[in-house]
Amino acid sequence: xxxxxxxxxxxxxISLTILIIILTYFIEINSVVHGQGVITTKDxxxxxxxxxxxxxxxxxxxEGDTVKxxxxxxxxxxxxxxxxxxxxxTQKGYLxxxxxxxxxxxxxxxxxxxxxxxxxxxxxxKEVKANIELVHSQIRAKELxxxxxxxxxxxxxxxxxxxxxxxxxxxxxxNILSPLVKKGISPYTNFLNKxxxxxxxxxEINDIESSITLKKDDIxxxxxxxEALNNELRLSLSKIISKNLQELEVVNSTLKVIEKQINEExxxxxxxxxxxxxxxxxxxxxxxxxxxxxxFEIKPKVRTMLADVKILPKYRDQIYVDEAVKLDVQSIIQPxxxxxxATID
Length: 345
Prior knowledge:
alpha+beta; CATH 2.40.50.100; 3 domains; membrane; transmembrane helix; coiled coil
């Protein structure tokens, strides 16, 4: 081989080497790893049960049926639950009405700020109605007593006015008689009688004024008693409203729970899937389901499978976690190979 042929051969070798380097840059060479394993699915089975038991009214599916999410599976009836719901609804209506009626009475007051009988005729709570009427009769008795005292004071004031006029006349007569007695023109006995009459009238005036003061004090006590009765009644009614509102809070909370349980009577599928298992008691009309018993087990449709593969130690340095791979599966039953995109966990 001459020098020219040798150079030509060298150029071919260099060109092939460069071509191989370029091809290895653009072409991804994958390792092939073999192993035996099992294909499974993620266990996301949906278990459906009831917080309260009931009786099967209708059932629309059977084991093995394919169902859609939101599809009606069965209807369950719980008569005890419905009776309990109606009982709480009735109690709520009574409490609401009681609060509204008593609040209306508290808002209605006369010019003196006293609770009136307006609205008590239609009051449903007979006990409250009787209490209001009793207190109102007590207040009415106090008001009559006050009216009587006012009348007595008015009479005493008229009498006082008359006595004050009489006293003024006596004083005037005494002033006239005094110089006449000193001069001996008028007898002393007449002057003395006028003087004694003046003292007597003055004493009567003092007694009348004392009586007026006492009766005014009595009126003040009566007014205080009326205010106390009214305030006590108002406080009593306010306490009833407060108690009813507390009971309403409990009743409303209970109703929400019962309504949620009643809504469970229509049983819907939570996922797309297959009915895997049905409670034997639920397969017939009238079957009884206990609280927390399994009613349906649904296997959801899944797109992801798990391949549990045993890898020989000699291949373990060729695989990496989270690596995207192509998985070829060959079954003993079905020799045909199926390929899947996969990720190593």
